[in-house]
Design a protein that fits this description.
The chain has two helices and four strands. By secondary structure, it is α+β, with helices and mostly antiparallel strands. The structure holds zinc ion.
Length: 87
C-alpha cells in the first residue's frame, strides 16, 4: 500500500473529505458508491464497481483475490498467458 502523504481530520459527523486530486486520479465522481474494507489496522476505500474489473460485464463473475472478474476476461487472460508461455 502506497502512502499519499495526505492527512485529513474526521469532522463532527464522522466525515472525511477525499482530496479533489485523488478523486480525479481515481476517477471518482460525486455520488459514486465507495466500498469500505478493514485490513488489520487499516481502513481501505475502494470504488464500488459491482461488475467485472476489466469490462462492463455484471454476470458470470468470479471473485479472485477480492476482485470480480467475468468468465470472458478469465478466458482472455488464460489465452494470453498460454500465448506468452510460447515466447
Ligand atoms: Zn470482464
Amino acid at each position: 500500500m502506497k502512502s499519499t502523504g495526505i492527512v485529513r481530520r474526521i469532522d463532527n459527523l464522522g466525515r472525511v473529505v477525499l482530496p479533489m486530486e485523488l478523486r480525479r486520479v481515481m476517477k471518482l465522481e460525486v455520488k459514486d458508491p465507495i466500498e469500505i474494507f478493514v485490513d488489520g489496522e487499516s481502513i481501505v476505500l475502494r470504488a464500488y464497481r459491482p461488475g467485472c474489473e476489466f469490462c462492463p460485464a455484471t454476470s458470470n463473475l468470479i471473485d479472485f483475490e477480492g476482485r470480480k472478474v467475468c468468465m470472458d476476461c478469465i478466458e482472455k487472460m488464460a489465452s494470453k498467458a498460454k500465448g506468452d508461455e510460447l515466447k
